[in-house]
Amino acid sequence: MTAIIDHAIREMEKKERWQRVAEQMEQTKREDPQAWADYVAESELVQGPRPRTSRIAPEWEGLITFPEERDEGDSGRDLAR
């Protein structure tokens, strides 16, 4: 029983910690746009550019064509040429 309670407490603390991080990032974005731009630029240097969509994993980027991205004459294939 104690293990279950300890696990629940750790999960709650973890959730609260990441919520504080998200709030601090939003605050920086709002109050110091230059610092935020510097952070994004540095992040892109380390991790590469952000994917244009979060619908797919970065390694699949450019390999899949979503229906809304297809041309009128597209035959309906999902793989890019």
UniProtKB/TrEMBL annotation:
This is Uncharacterized protein.
